[in-house]
Design a protein that fits this description.
The structure holds 2 protein chains of 2 kinds. Chain A is mainly α. Chain A has 13 helices and no strands. In chain B, helix 3 packs across helix 4. Classes of the chains: A mainly alpha, B alpha+beta.
């Protein structure tokens, strides 16, 4: 009994240590962002702020210089949203639709189609930079937010299709057969039967797509114009723009702002991460 | 209510080297309850799916009520199907599940309501209409699945092993309910099962299938007492029919018999009906149901042979006991009265009633026609 308690204690000690190690960077970031510049220069990186100030946050949001303009990251923050929302919605819908077709309406070569699409998951970003730029130029979408969103939709479709395909393959074919006999057509079955069952996988896909598109830097820096830069690019510019003094507190605040939406998505959508919504369609 | 004619249905799956259905011919009358039965992989579910239109046929004709439907979409064939897994829509309530097909067919809302109520009452699920399938028990789900089929009032009902996911007690209960429903509604039903008791109890006619071919199509009684071949004979009935192989001889009196060894390795003669004389010198298999071997002492006659065998195993089932013996190195099952008492190894006199036996050619395994 005593032995058991001791091993429990040991286990918790290790877990807590790991927690602390993982939390450290965030704690340092938050504390640094709340310090004044002299405080940062004088003190230890781990120390609490001598004076708690939010100046760095205001500056990062509305006044810091990113390249030649000095309006903070707020404009770019909204740019990112304008790019991320359509890109996530469209790529998720395409993935759901593709997944539905390759599992429930298999056609000649649908497996080949799916394998080729899977290939898209392994294509490095760098490979398509130049051809994609040419395509965007021809479409007249160079340097636009929509153009950037389009790139993300195309790139994301491979992943979202994979997600939905793996989810739909677990849904019994008999459900589709029953609906067919009930008189439902291709789209009715998709919208009335399968999509309502897809909440868990939609949440997974949205989290995945939102995070990877929001965090993307390479496509953002290549395909966006000066006004349409996403926040990741702006953050980079903010940190690299030097006007003599390095304002660590502003950098930290801006970095937290840039990371906040993905955190919010995790917190909000995470609870819908439930499985077993189809439980009950088959024998239980 | 409708007739269904299957004419030379053939089906080969792409990339398969064998035909799954090898020319099925079945004609079903209006209001008839036909059961397709066979071991797994015999093509019965495939046949069912082709009738429903969920799978294409390679050649042949499917005719429902005089209308050729082999190229018609499933939804336009006017067929309802009950699946083994029930396939209830998990996101809809029981009401939604039953009403779905009616809504798709643009039935006015009031009519849908009355129809759902009618079906729910009939199946005693009217108190469950607001539940989701996940909140139902197996038997209730099964009834909802049937309700979904009944609500559309289709020409033809297809049941694909609808009871095999239920426990034994519920299965018997649902079996009665299905039989009652059929008598009430007098609908045409095609029903797939691998359970031979279901087949015997429910069917007007049974089609026994094996490897994509119909082995025999007939009433349950035909199938049971006059099986076309050894496969059908062994498939229907539990414990299955006893097969006693041997060569036909004739004794001095002209009585045909086959020779066998009893438990003491003593040669004994098993008398055959006189009509078997024409097979003298040929290898045959005698098929005898377990209930046609008794422990009642009866005088020997042309068709009644007494043999003394030692008991291997005794299996009491309640209404009767199944006793296993060894004859000619083959296992023989007998259905005896529950009062029968004997220990393993004990020698028991048994009467073999060959007047009820069927005879098969040992090579072709087909039944021999004797007058």
């Amino acid at each position: 009994m005593n032995n058991l308690k001791l091993s429990r204690l040991f286990l918790y000690a290790i877990l807590i240590t790991f927690c602390l190690v993982y939390m450290m960077p965030l704690v340092v970031m938050v504390m640094t962002s709340l310090k004044t510049l002299p405080d940062i220069k004088a003190g230890n990186i781990m120390s609490l702020p001598q004076e708690w100030v939010f100046d760095a946050w205001y500056k990062a949001w509305g006044g810091a210089c990113t390249g030649i303009t000095c309006e903070g990251v707020k404009g770019y923050f909204w740019n990112s949203f304008q790019m991320v929302i359509p890109a996530v919605v469209v790529s998720t819908l395409i993935g759901a639709f593709n997944g539905y077709v390759v599992t429930k309406w298999q056609f000649k070569g649908s497996n080949l189609f799916f394998s080729l699409l899977l290939f898209g998951c392994f294509i490095p970003f760098q490979v398509i930079l130049l051809p994609m730029a040419a395509v965007l130029g021809k479409l007249g979408m160079a340097n636009t937010t929509m153009g950037l969103a389009l790139v993300h939709v195309i790139y994301g479709a491979a992943f979202t299709t994979l997600f939905f395909r793996n989810f739909y393959i677990g849904i019994p074919d008999e459900l589709v057969k029953a609906a067919k006999l009930d008189g439902a057509g291709f789209f009715t079955i998709f919208f009335r039967i399968l999509l309502p069952l897809s909440t868990p996988i939609i949440m997974v896909t949205v989290i995945w797509q939102f995070t990877s598109i929001w965090n993307d830097f390479l496509f953002g820096v290549v395909y966006s114009g000066a006004d349409t830069q996403p926040i990741t690019v702006a953050l980079n510019n903010l940190v690299n723009t030097s006007t003599g003094v390095k304002e660590y507190n502003v950098d930290m605040a801006a970095a937290i702002i840039a990371g906040l939406p993905t955190l919010v998505v995790y917190v909000l959508a995470g609870k819908y991460f439930v499985r077993g919504l189809t439980a009950g369609s088959v024998k239980g | 209510m409708a007739t269904l004619d299957l004419k030379q249905i053939r089906k080969t799956y792409p990339k398969a080297d064998q035909e799954t259905l090898k020319g099925i011919d079945i004609s079903i009358e209006s209001g008839e309850f036909l059961i397709l039965v066979g071991p797994s992989g015999c093509g019965k579910s495939t046949l069912m799916n082709t009738i429903a239109g969920l799978e294409d046929i390679s050649s042949g004709h499917i005719v429902i009520d005089g209308r050729e439907v082999s190229q018609v979409e499933p939804k336009d064939r006017d067929i309802a199907m009950v699946f083994q897994s029930y396939a209830l829509y998990p996101n809809m309530t029981v009401y939604g599940n039953i009403a779905f097909g009616l809504k798709i067919r643009k039935m006015p809302q009031e009519e849908i309501n009355t129809e759902v109520q009618r079906v729910a009452k009939m199946l005693q699920i009217d108190h469950l209409l607001d539940r989701k399938p996940s909140q139902l028990s197996g038997g209730q789900r099964q009834r909802v699945a049937m309700g979904r089929a009944l609500a559309r009032r289709p020409k033809l009902y297809l049941f694909d092993e609808p009871l095999s996911n239920l426990d034994a007690k519920l299965r018997v209960e649902m079996r009665h309910q299905i039989k009652r429903l059929h008598q009430q509604l007098n609908t045409t039903i095609v029903y797939v099962t691998h359970d031979q008791i279901e087949a015997m109890t429910l069917a007007d006619r049974i089609a026994v299938m094996k490897e994509g071919e119909v082995q025999q199509l007939g009433t349950p009684n035909d199938i049971y007492s006059a099986p076309n071949n050894m496969f059908v004979a062994s498939f229907m009935g539990s414990p299955s029919m006893n097969f006693i192989a041997g060569c036909v001889h004739r004794n001095d009196a002209g009585q045909p018999y086959i020779e066998m060894l009893d438990s003491n390795q003593d040669p004994k003669q098993l008398s055959l009906p006189l009509a078997m004389s024409e097979y003298e010198g040929k290898d045959i298999v005698v098929g005898l149901r377990p209930e046609h071997i008794t422990d009642k002492v009866m005088p020997d006659s042309d068709t009644l042979t007494r043999l003394e065998l030692s008991l291997d195993v005794l299996e009491p089932t309640g209404p009767d006991v199944i006793a296993m013996f060894t004859l000619n190195d083959q296992e023989i099952a007998c259905r005896l009265a529950p009062t029968f008492l004997a220990k393993a190894g004990q020698v028991v006199p048994l009467s073999f009633d060959l007047s009820k036996a069927v005879f098969f050619d040992a090579k072709t395994e087909q039944r021999l026609d004797i007058v």
